Amino acid sequence: MENKVTTIKIQEKTKKRLNKLKEYELESYEQILRKMLYILNLCRKKPELAKRKLELIDESIKREKDYKEDMG
Description:
The radius of gyration is 14 Å and the shape is globular. The protein is built from three helices and no strands. The protein has one domain (20-71). The protein is an all-alpha fold.
């Protein structure tokens, strides 16, 4: 099966929100959206695990933000 690529339109404020979810600078929107869908599905099956995953992502985002601030 061929992986086709498509374009979607989103509002600028949605793009900014997606950017805030990046765990690292080069993380793609595709990766962010897949991660979001994974966690949403996990919420249905194992809410506690989903909560822990979100905590880990928050920690990762904070580390990336701190790193960027330290580097100037």
